Predict the 3D structure of the following.
Amino acid sequence: MSRVFSDVVIVGGGVVGCSAAFHLSQPRGARVIVVEKGSLASGMTKRSGALIHTSFTHAPEARLALASLRYFQDWKEIVGGSCGFTQTGCAIVTGNETAAAKLREQIAALWKIGSHTRVISLEQLRELAPGARVDDLTLAAYEAEAGYADPVETTRTLAARAKERGVAFKTGTLVKGIRVNMGRVSGVDTTTGEIDALTVVVIAGAWTDRLLKPLGVEIGIQNTRAQVVFFERPAELKAGHAAFIDGATGAHFRPHTFGLTMGGLNTPQGEEKDPDHFDEHVAPEFVADVRQRIAARLPALAQARYIRGHAGIYDTSPDARPVISRVPGIEGLIVAAGFSGEGFALAPAVGACVAEMITDGAARSVDLRPLQLNRFSKNDTVTG
Ligand SMILES: Cc1cc2nc3c(=O)[nH]c(=O)nc-3n(C[C@H](O)[C@H](O)[C@H](O)COP(=O)(O)OP(=O)(O)OC[C@H]3O[C@@H](n4cnc5c(N)ncnc54)[C@H](O)[C@@H]3O)c2cc1C
């Protein structure tokens, strides 16, 4: 067993952990170690749908998404290598008047903070998404800059650049516990030894509460099942199609590489108790359900051949917003989790903010005060 000294330990080598490592690496100069129990991106990142858009209903998340979009667009210059960003455009559509009124309000708020998502007519939607059925819709919005990326390549390139700049990665190493002395973090105990550190950042997604609970802290993250399925695109859609977040059918879908279309449902599919043991397979009924909902918008996909699918887990906080925060009462402990089904699109800016919290004392890129952990303390969800 070894004993190692470091300034910062990041627990979790997913896209958010590796983004934090990238942003903490030189020229900031901190000694950083990322500890990952599996391989990099082996958690929910590798299972991500990786849809990138900025049409969030909550301003802090929209700001994180906007800041992140610039990274995905200029990945080669900012990070190096390719994250596989493919611009597809994304339509957000609703099927009733109440949802339409909410969407209108949301788009107006998004414009104020710099998102280019705009309300479009159903005629314009037909032009942007040829073959789409629109007669059941009440409103459509469109973000031309939206798209998707390769979640594993995104993580790999962030980690590669961080490593080049001096960050150490310990994969295949489980953090067994976080050490706290007199109200201050002092390091972590791992399966390969102890690491002393002034700051510990827990970016462990669905495993986060498991690490925090022994310290008397609990965010109250609910782990829920989310599945995505891939279909072969028919010849008439060979060139691709816009992504859709479809409030009328309850599904979302986007084109994927290799002539595929990837889709899933807008709401998760029940609780998952153990992120280390869950059924990763997708049931035929789910495949049929998603195909039917996608075909209700793009009828050309009605007979699309099912290629593959997988399940993953959304880590959802009590108010379904991320937590990016210092942990009250434990100096040096920071947590970034609760990203649910949207953490990939936010990862570049979240990593930047975490690095700013450590080196500058507070996040500067985006005001993260609404995402602090103490927002739950009123209802006693957080016990630390
Ligand atoms: C099916 C599915 C579809 C999705 N689609 C989208 C989408 O279209 N767009 C979008 O923006 N987001 C999407 N998401 C969400 C997004 O993928 C996640 O929010 C994001 O990947 C979270 O990254 P992370 O680094 O926080 O967590 P993870 O990738 O889960 O990384 C956490 C890491 O911590 C490690 N770890 C845990 N405990 C320990 C320990 N004790 N010691 C050491 N290591 C530990 C784990 O092994 C894991 O690798 C989707 C998620 C799923 C499941």
About this structure: The domain at 2-47+152-221+319-379 is CATH 3.50.50.60 (FAD/NAD(P)-binding domain).
